[in-house]
Amino acid sequence: MTRLDLQPFFRSTIGFDEIVEMLGGMTDNNRKPNQYPPYNIEKLKEEIYRITVAVAGFHEEDIDITKHNHLLSIEGRMTRKAEQENEDHTYLYKGIAERSFQLQFRLADHMNILGVDLENGMLCITMEREVPEALKPQKLKINTKKKEKTTLIEGKSEK
To answer: What is the pTM of this model?
Structure first.
């Protein structure tokens, strides 16, 4: 039996909730993503989303965030200064990852970035989907013609 793994698609899309929910039952949701750095995607309100990325050890100048068309890219680079600091001593055990990363998220149409915050090693990107009025569904009014008042005429029929 051939299985199609759509988890990578689900982990990198924002604003496609209906599609993800529809296809969600057809995939194995028990597998954990092997992704560095770890991140969360949250739906805060009907059209407001937030991506939170754990970027402990990265400074503001080490992180580049770009949005081009429907692609949001987050890139973190370990600076040469941080690498030189690590060369001054020998680790007996090194369990904290210090490596560059790149994450990409495909955004739905009309997604606007509201803000980007970096606090306590957590990078938060808040966005909102603003569908233009011209593209929103419109409620149409049904017009009915008023019936003309009819008069019943009684009479004898000619045979």
So the answer is: 0.62
